[in-house]
Write a structure and sequence with these properties.
By secondary structure, this protein is mainly beta. About 15% of the residues lie in helices and about 35% in strands.
Length: about 140
């Protein structure tokens, strides 16, 4: 398992690659993009593997005042009603630790809260800025 650049937003993603069977799993905690490649025959494509790609529209992180948390990776753009519902939940959360951030191909939008500092940098900037021993776990 290692850090790599997200194919969707350029942020810091975590990749797990099983080279012997060529399975790969990538998740970006910044934009919510996920890529899964399974060693499973896909009859439709005629390939020895199946690929699934989802998310990439943003991340919601809600932490209660008691310390329980929920992370949601968005699979589509939020509707105004969904955004309002998240905002209503945010009010009862620890507002210093919770956030909602969306992504739309070019830009991130922070709707509420404050995402982690490294979310505001590309993977390249993140790697240059922090020495390896100072880089923290992403999740």
């Amino acid at each position: 398992m290692h850090e790599t650049e997200c194919h969707n937003c350029g942020g810091t993603a975590t990749e797990d690659w099983y080279y012997k069977i060529d399975e790969k799993f990538l998740i970006c905690s910044v934009c919510g993009y996920t890529y899964d490649k399974y060693a499973e025959y896909d009859e439709e494509l005629g390939t020895p593997y199946r690929e699934e790609i989802s998310g990439g529209f943003g991340t919601v992180y809600l932490e209660s005042k008691e310390g329980f948390c929920t992370r949601i990776f968005l699979d589509a753009k939020l509707t105004p009603g969904e955004l309002k519902a998240y905002r209503n939940v945010f009010i009862s959360c620890d507002q210093d630790k919770s956030y909602l951030m969306t992504y739309d191909v070019i830009d991130f939008y922070i709707h509420f809260g404050k995402p982690p500092e490294h979310f505001l940098h590309t993977f390249k900037e993140y790697k240059e800025k922090a020495p390896m021993e100072d880089q923290k776990e992403l999740f």
